[in-house]
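Kindly inspect this today.
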Amino acid sequence: MAATPSSEVRSGLKLISPPVFYAILMLAAPLATVLIYSVMTGEKGAVSLPLTLDNYYELFTKPIYRALMWRSLMVSFFVTLATVLLAYPVAYFVSFHVNPSRKSLWLFLITIPFWTSYIIRVSLWRTILGYDGILDSVVMGLGLSDTQPNILSNGVLSIIITLAHAYAPFAVLPIFVSLEKVDRSLLEAGQDLGESRWMTFLRVTLPLSLPGVIAAVLIVFIPTVGDYVTPELIGGGRTPMIANLMETQMLKQRDQAMGSAIAVAAMTIVALISIAFVLWNRRFLGGRK
């Protein structure tokens, strides 16, 4: 006996109900709570009525909040730029110049940094970049400088270097997958028509791999905006970003309303930038088609 449409619908709802319930419980409910808290009045470590937009007004008018938000976006931008620029050649080399039987080995080697804790990797960069550290010893030993660079003293630069290293594997993998989908016959056709390898790359390989580049950009940009550990460990708390400001508001000043407003504003800005990237990618691909 054939199943009726209504029975199929009920079966489908039963099948998806556990993950939907989990998503609502673990994602939607906390986000809704943060959103509600952001428009409430913070007082004496608690939130209360009336509803107000004063938290957002203070967030966008107070210079310290704007400065930290701008710093977070700029750091994330440069981290993303550096990561993608470093990851693309690696992914290109593995995709086009490594024997197919060894590509899995190369990808395995790329993921080795994930074997150690993120905090350990960040802490190791303090040894590398700090005063009288590994980098200073190399620079002084080679006679490249009379003074120790001590890059760690430059909080923003040291944070960018550390985050770029930490998120590099995340950028390599989507770019590699996108390059693997490029039809090699198109490259051969371009060279048969007299195009140089460089022009073939610019006109064929790079545009066709753009979805992987956009995916890498989003994978790196979104989490680095809200990174908390690296500014705290590398910057020593002297170069805070937006996540550190949230922690201060939530736990130290116990102003859950303002902390929630900062979180909502940061999520909104990141979401708008991410949507712009996705729409630009679709328009670019649509235009090429």
In short: The mean pLDDT is 84. Residues 10 and 16 are 10 Å apart (CA to CA). The longest strand covers residues 41-43. Residues 54-288 form a domain with the MetI-like fold fold (CATH 1.10.3720.10).
